[in-house]
Design goal:
about 575 residues; alpha+beta; six-stranded mixed sheet; 16 helices; about 15% strand; elongated; PucR family transcriptional regulator ligand-binding domain-containing protein; PucR_C-HTH_sf; PucR_C-HTH_dom; CdaR-like_regulators
């Protein structure tokens, strides 16, 4: 914590001093003062020093003064103050030019100024500023600690900190999801935030781009904010961010925010501990429900309601039809039918995510589950969501088409444009009408996520309804059996790494997809009709007369789909 070069020149001891070169560095920070008594001063200087000299050690220096300016700038000094006339005469133009080029302030001191007065005034001012910063930080720490001791959480902490600092304050996860905020609706349009998903307008729907934001003070479009990490031990729990509103922030505000982050870390750890117990209880119930361990399914919905979940489908009559009200001729819209779908999301294996600092992140599975819980509860708190060992499971209430809702949730969890987070694959079950159907739906979603990753790789989204024949292939537990079937059916066409075999497989696949329409297949493959006829004969010599045998065509179609499955 120090004062700028401009502020230092306003001190009584520096009355009459002026910057003669390097004006661009007028806001460099001075934290200490040093006196140059020897030409080789570099081993004894420190960053953010104001270096005082009479010029006497430089009068016979063998190296140009321009080199000295460059060396002092590289060492991080704030400025050099020189009494030039007694020993140096006028300052050399090349020195002034070098200082202007580097933005390194060169201050010309009046002859009558005493170095001990400068030392006293500058150091006294720095100590006064540091004392004020510590007092402000202590005030913030005591105010927030009192809230924490009274049982307040992140919402209360951000509100009090916003009052003290006079601007919006928010707490985010390490990847930028807003956990608590006060006044953030006035700043979430800034470029340090991702845009909210379509249809979402609240501050909690935005994400702070933590991967592009650094601790300390930053300005975006004229709006200044201070950011500090929330750390507990060696674990990174998120970010505490305050935005300047009525006044500009300075180092004192950053120091106050750092003290506030300590209290915020306690609140986060407490919240995580309570949530861990509650989540385990909920997850145990949901696992028992989805794996068919609950004997009394009639009471399952009632018990879920005590946990804040609604898993009761609603049959209705739907389709916008109307029925007559009991009290007259008025008509009312019939309740819209509501079904349930199970969604399973798994982190894709084989990813390496390094933390942005030496501080570790919470385990990836915990952060993944927390992200889903935040996003799902933001839409509908009554939708069950829980993290199991390797997967996150969500039970969604949906209408006729769950796809738009599923896409929206996946986009929000993955953080569109966020960068740096792990990819995950998702499987979605068919719609079910009763709680008793949920175990079967859970198995469908699990099969869908596994088969989707096999077909499309990491980040896939697979609906059980759309798997087709892959639903049957997913039931075969032995991959060797599938490989053997594909090899024995395709014979010479199954050769891996053979360009000719791959080319003929493509031809066969297009023929099967066009229901053996040779003209259409030739058009899609950009072949001459006779060329395709020649290729058909070549394929039949390898695999048999598939043009005449429907059973062989079925086998070949299944074998080709097996080859599309990754890992086989």
């Amino acid at each position: 914590i120090g004062l700028t070069v401009t502020q230092a020149l306003a001190l009584p001891a520096l009355a009459g001093a002026r910057i003669v070169a390097g004006h661009a560095g007028h806001d460099r920070v001075v934290e200490r003062v040093n006196v140059m008594e020897v030409p080789d001063i570099l081993p004894w200087v420190k960053p953010k020093e104001l270096l005082l000299t009479t010029g006497y050690p430089l009068r016979h220096s063998p190296s140009p003064l321009t080199d000295l300016i460059a060396d002092l700038d590289r060492a991080g000094l704030a400025a050099i103050a020189i009494k030039p006339h007694r020993y140096l005469g006028d300052l050399p133009p090349e020195l002034l030019a070098a200082a202007d080029r580097l933005g390194f302030p060169v201050i010309e001191l009046p002859e009558g100024v005493a170095f001990d007065d400068i030392l006293t005034d500058v150091l006294s001012d720095v100590l006064d500023r540091q004392s004020a910063v510590l007092a402000r930080a202590d005030h913030v720490h005591r105010a927030l600690s009192q809230i924490a001791l009274e049982g307040g959480g992140l919402a209360e902490l951000t509100a009090e900190l916003a009052r003290i600092l006079g601007g919006p304050v928010l707490v985010t996860t390490p990847d930028g999801r807003i956990l608590a905020e006060h006044g953030a609706d006035t700043v979430c349009h800034l470029p340090c935030f991702d845009a909210a998903p379509d249809g979402q307008i609240g501050p909690a729907d935005h994400r702070l781009r933590t991967e592009a934001e650094h601790p300390g003070l930053t300005a975006h479009h004229g709006t200044q904010h201070a950011l500090v990490p929330i750390l507990a031990g060696r674990v990174d729990h998120g970010r505490l961010v305050a935005f300047a509103d009525r006044r500009a922030f300075d180092a004192a505000d950053v120091a106050a925010l750092e003290r506030a982050a300590t209290v915020a870390a306690l609140a986060v750890v407490k919240q995580l501990a309570v949530a861990a117990v509650e989540d385990k209880y909920r997850a145990d119930f949901l696992r028992d429900l989805l794996t068919g361990r609950l004997e009394d399914l009639q009471s399952a919905a009632a018990h879920a309601a005590t946990l804040g979940w609604d898993i009761s489908p609603r049959p209705g009559t739907g389709n916008g039809r109307q029925h007559r009200a009991l009290n007259g001729d008025q008509t009312a819209a019939a309740p819209t039918p509501r079904s349930l779908v199970v969604l399973v999301a798994e982190l894709d294996p084989g990813q390496s995510v390094l933390p942005a600092s030496q501080h570790a992140l919470r385990p990836a599975r915990e952060r993944f589950a927390a992200a889903w819980q935040t996003v799902v509860s933001g839409r509908d708190r009554t939708n069950p969501v829980a993290g199991f060992n390797q997967e996150v499971v969500v039970v969604l209430k949906t209408g006729e088409d769950p796809d738009p809702l599923v896409k929206s949730l996946i986009a929000e969890v993955s953080g569109t444009g966020g960068g740096g987070r792990r990819t995950f694959s998702t499987g979605v079950s068919r719609r079910v009408a009763t709680v008793a159907d949920l175990p079967a739906a859970y198995e469908e979603a699990r099969r869908a996520v596994r088969m989707g990753r096999r077909l499309n790789g990491p980040g896939s989204v697979a609906h059980f309804d759309a798997l087709g024949v892959y639903r049957l292939l997913s039931l075969v537990p032995d991959p060797d059996e599938l490989r053997d079937f594909a090899r024995q059916t395709l014979k010479g066409l199954a050769a891996d790494g053979d360009p000719d075999a791959e080319d003929l497989r493509t031809t066969l696949e297009v023929l099967l997809d066009t229901n053996l329409n040779v003209a259409e297949a030739a058009r899609r493959l950009h072949f001459h009709y006779n060329t395709l006829r020649y290729r058909i004969g070549k394929i039949e010599r390898l695999v048999g007369p598939f043009m005449e045998r429907p059973d062989l065509r079925l086998d070949l179609s299944v074998a080709l789909r097996i080859l599309h499955m990754r890992g086989l």
